[in-house]
Structure formats: structure tokens, C-alpha cells
Amino acid sequence: MGHRRSAVKRLAHRRGGMMALGRLFAIGLAALMPSSSIAAASDAEWPCQQRLVPVLTAGMIWNGPPIDDVGDWRADPRVTELVEHIVPRDIGPEQGEAAIAAFAEQLGSDKARPITLAFSGLLTETNHERAEVIERIKDLGERQRNLAALIDRLTTELGAMTDAEHGDVSPARDELQQRLTYTSRTYAEVQRTMRYACQVPVSLDARLGAYARALESALH
Amino acid sequence: MVNNSIARTIRSFPELVRRVLLAWAVVALATTIANAETVLVSNEKGNSISVFDAASLKMMKTIPVGQRPRGIILSKDQHTLYICASDNDEIEQLDLDTYKLKPPLPSGADPETFALHPDGRHLYVSNEGNSLVSIVDIEQRRIVGEIPVGVEPEGIGISPDGKWIVNTSETTSMAHFIDNEAHKVVANVLVDSRPRHAEWTSDGKEVWVSSEIGGSVSVIDAGSHQVTHKIKFEVSGVPKEAVQAVGIAITGDRKLAFVALGPANRVAVVDAASYEVKKYLLVGQRVWNLAFNHDQSRLYTTNGISNDISEIDVPNLKVLRSVVAGEQPWGIVVRP
Questions:
Q1: Average predicted confidence (pLDDT) for chain B
Q2: Mean per-residue pLDDT for B69-77?
Q3: In the A/B pair of chains, how many CB contacts fall below 8 A?
Q4: For a designed S-S bond to B52, which of A76, B39, B85, B324 qualifies (C-beta 3.0 to 4.6 A apart)?
Q5: Which has the closest alpha carbon to B185: B175, B172, B176, B197?
Q6: B183: closest CA among B212, B148, B131?
Q7: Would you say B280 and B266 are in contact if contact means Cβ atoms under 8 Å apart?
Q8: Which residues neighbour A204 within 8 Å (Cβ) at sequence distance 6 or greater?
Q9: Which among B171, B213, B236 has CB closest to A59?
Q10: Chain B interface disruption, residue of A13, A33, A38, A51, most B CBs within 10 A
């Protein structure tokens, strides 16, 4: 996957002008697709470097009591309050861990059930958050694929316009060049957004892991 | 000084007590020696190397290095750490006695992983961006050879006798066997999707290749270049997509192998003779690479999402603890 970054660096060094960038973004069409032609079917539209894991499960991160038969986490107001407080994306892990500590503090000796319920609620709600983010990233990926295809076509058309036929100051050539420049810039901007967006599921995974460890620690 | 003082004190006790205390002193001394080990971790996003005392797992130092450090290897004399600084397009050299960076080595484009030849003088670097393996002469600090390989070369392993190189190609899902004298690919072995890591057994008879998307390990006979066993991993309660085989560590006696399973957050323990999975150990999130300590009594893992490392008790197959590392820990080695 690192070839995408290095391809950018090499082309920036060796070539100038939008023709080169056009070719680069055409390469980006392939780069957008996860490699290995590419991954499993569920990964086909996934533009991020990390392989798509659509849903997190308790088995991946939870070392506490089983959650299957623990009941409905929404039935316990203490749990509901905690989950709703620390699930929004703008809550950092440290803030969430502090809230978990306060939640655990108020529990009596029979704390295993509410703690397990809390994990169940956090898992469910984090998966909802992730699912929304994943859909947005897939939309972004589709947009990039379309842009990359357009760049590929414009680059080919521009390359086919020989100087002999159109001259350096051909209006048609200028217009095509401008379209290519604009489309390439848009592609680059979306790509920057994509890099940030791809980190969001990773951050949610990391935060849920931190919450799971804080809850497990409160069990003992 | 402390040991002399202990000895003087022991001499003043009656015989039985003296023997007990002597035994204790021997254990204490052995512990002191074990304490000398350090665990070194590259932090891909933190652009740093974390240094841990292996006994206490206390972080002793964090050394800023180049951009996106991933693969790390100890020099043959164990006084230098070679670091693939992927976005700097170079291999950095960290002096492990002073913890200062020495002049870097060339690497070719986008170095991700590499392997040290048994001669201790040559590094073989996977250049993911241009489908090459670059051979770096460490003393001369220059690239002395390039071997064309498959698209997006990734894992790389050198046979214990230095005669064979195995390089995996992420895009073509192949393990390439390279004759290291002719510098030519002599066999291409198809493995499962997105091969990540190639690990030779200590006797040089097999190469184990992990496949991230395939979620498997292909065991390849080094003589016939045939896949003789395919090890699959299924973790109860964990979705198939999360089971991504990456780092591999095989004990020197070839009794056990450990395979990092990425976002499954497990290390699989495999009987290296029967190729059966014995156990899954829950570690930190997105476990990526593995390293034994000197006597292989401990195994350490880098966990890229939870930003920590885990310590595994090898004889008892138990996870002992996890401690915080830098941002996105990736490579790991233990310096004796």
C-alpha cells in the first residue's frame, strides 16, 4: 500500500505539470482499490489501507463475562446514562474511562452484571457509529473512483491532441487542460479527506478497546 | 558492590540459612542478567523508537527517528538498530549504546521490511514502490544490487545459510524464491491473498508465509518449493474478516510457532510439528509483529490500535501483561 505515497513523491520529483499529475491520478484509480485484486468481495469498495472489518464483536476485545444472555442494557438507567454519555465520537478515551470509573464506583458488590451490560451497550452503539462512518467512507471511495476515471479519460484525450493538429494555443486544448487541472485538484483534496476519514473507524476501535479494558479492570 | 555486600552478610549466617540465602542470591543474579534485556519498538505514527526494560517492561526511553518507522532489525553485534524509515526513503542506524542516530543507509524507495544476511554485512530491503529488493552494503553505505520481484514486495526472509531469499508480493499473492548467488527468482509459489511475512525455520527446511486477507499461513518446503501445509485460523466469536495473519515467530527447536492475527487481537499458538492450532491468546488490538527474547521464554507483540505491547509467557502460553508504547507500534526486537 505504501506505493501510493512513494508514487506521489517520485512523480513530484521527476515531472512537472498537470499531465504528470493526470497520469498519477489515473494510477490512483488502481490505488483506490485495495490491492490483491482485490481483497475479499466485502472489501471491493473499501478505499482504506486497513482491511474492512464491518462489525466489531465481543469476542474480539472483551475478556469479561459473556454478553449473550446478560439482557437489555437499556433496561438499566445507570448503564444507559453511561453509554449515551461516552459513545458520541467527540468523547475521547480518557474522558470515557473517567466516566467508567465513576460508574463502577457507584455499583455495589453485585457489579458484574451492570458492567457487562455497559460493555454490551458500548459495543452496540459503537457498531452503529462505525457503520455510519463506513458508509460515508465507501461513498467517498466511489467518488474518487469516478474522479480517477475522469482524469484517466481527460489525460488520454489531452495526449491525443498533437501540437501539429492543434498548436500550443488551441482553445480546445486549453479547456481540456483546465478541466484536468480542476479535476485533479478535487481528487487530491478528497484524497486528503479520505486519509482522515479512514482513521475514524480505527479511532473508534481503539476507544472501544480502552473502554473494554477499563470495564474489565472495574470487575476485579 | 551490592553482590559483595550480600555475600558478606550470607557468610555470617549458620550453614542451612546460608545455603538458602545463597540459592536466593543465585536467582537474584540470574534475574539481574535477564533484566539486561531491552525491548525495542518502532512506532509507525509516533515516528519514534520506544525502549523498554524487558524485566519490568518500564519504558526507559523514546527516541525520535525518521518518518514512518516500520521494520527494525538488530545488527549482528547487537550494538546498532537498523530502522526502515519508510517515508524518508532510508534506513536509519540507531547506536544502542548511546541512543544516537548514526549516518543513515540508502534503502531504495519506500522501505517497509528488510532482512539481515547471516554475514551481518548486507541488508535485503523490500522496496514496495518499485517492485525491487535492494541489497545494501552496510559498511560501504551503498546499494550494491537490485533484484526485480513481484508487484508490491512485502515480507522478506533469508535462509539460515544465506543462500536463499524469500520475498512475498502483496499484489500477486506469491512467495518468490530468489537464488542469492545469481540474484534471480527461481520459483514463484502461490499463497493466499496479501502475503505479509516470510519466516524460515531454524533448520532452513521450511518457510512459513502469512496471508493477511487469506487469514492463513502457507508452509512451504524449501527444497521442492511446494506448499505442504495450509494453516487456517478460526477464532470463536471473531468475524472472519478480522482474522488477518501477519507476524510469525517459530521457536528454535521448531516445537511451537506463534502467528499474530491482526484485528482478531489474538496470537495463535501452533504446534510446529503437527501444524495444529493449539490455542489463541488474547493480546492488544491489531497485533502485528512478534519477537522472542534471548532464551525464547518470552514473546512480545506490537499492538497497533491499542498502542501497546503485550508480553507472553512462552512455556505456560499465557499473556502476562500489556504496557503502553508509542503511537501505532509496528516493529519489535529484543536486544539481549
A1: 92
A2: 97
A3: 96
A4: B39
A5: B176
A6: B148
A7: yes
A8: A89, A126, A129, A130, A133
A9: B236
A10: A51
